[in-house]
Amino acid sequence: MLGLKLATDPRWVNIVESNIEEILTDHAWCEQKAASNAISLVTYNSELEELVTEMLIIAKEELDHLQLVHNLIKSKGLTLGRERKDHYVNELFKFMKKDGSRKDALCDRLLFSAMIEARSCERFKVLSENIKDVELATFYRDLMISEAGHYTTFLGFARKYADNINVDKRWKEWIEFETSIITNYGKQETIHG
After folding, report:
1. What does 112-135 look like in DSSP terms, one character per residue?
2. In a domain? residue 96
């Protein structure tokens, strides 16, 4: 369903399990950034009522996820660390087209967002199926379902607001680019790392 070409090696979970505090901290900041992304889409596209309505829902869900992760961190006696850079997302951001019409830029921003949600969903699936901690397995299964919904929402809006862009062609370009960079990741105890 997600269209990703390379699956995460399940052995990545062994790295994650070596430092649960790190993965949870990174995850918390990923949720904060996802909420900020949805708010940015509202800010720059306030005239698009349907988009604004859905992005506000997503922003709230992402903040709710941040709170869930923070609660989990506290319940495990861990500490929310400082914000982490997400090199994977930064590489995707550089691939995003920023020229053309406002609608073209919006379309690519939505595809960028869909790609992040797709990979996050895939990583959550790997965690839910391979992590030994039963509480975390259930937690990541639930979040996987939510991320899949966000992925389809972003992709749907890209198709709706595409002006001069062939969305299917551009999405294939996103998939190819993501495939070319994901091999550099999956070696750290971070959601995308």
Report:
1. HHHHHHHHHHHHHHHHHHH-S-HH
2. yes
Whole-angstrom Cα Rg for the chain: 16
Neighbouring C-alpha atoms within 13 Å toward the C-beta of 153: 21
Burial class (CB in 10 A: 0-12, 13-18, 19+), 176: exposed
What CATH number corresponds to the domain at position 56?
1.20.1260.10
* Token duo for residue 100: 């053309």
Please state, in angstroms and rounded to a whole number, the distance separating the CA atoms of residues 130 and 140: 11
Number of domains in the chain: 1
Residue 49 forms part of a structural domain: yes
Is position 192 within any domain?
A: no
pLDDT digits (tens, 9 = 90+) for 135-192: 999 999 999 999 999 999 999 999 999 988 899 999 999 999 999 999 888 888 888 8
* Contact call for residues 107 and 164 (beta carbons, < 8 A): no
Residue 187 lies in a domain: no
On average, the pLDDT of the chain sits at: 94
Residues 6+ apart with CB under 8 A from 144: 121, 124, 125, 128
Where residue 1 falls among pLDDT bands split at 50, 70, 90? low
CA distance 90 to 83: 14
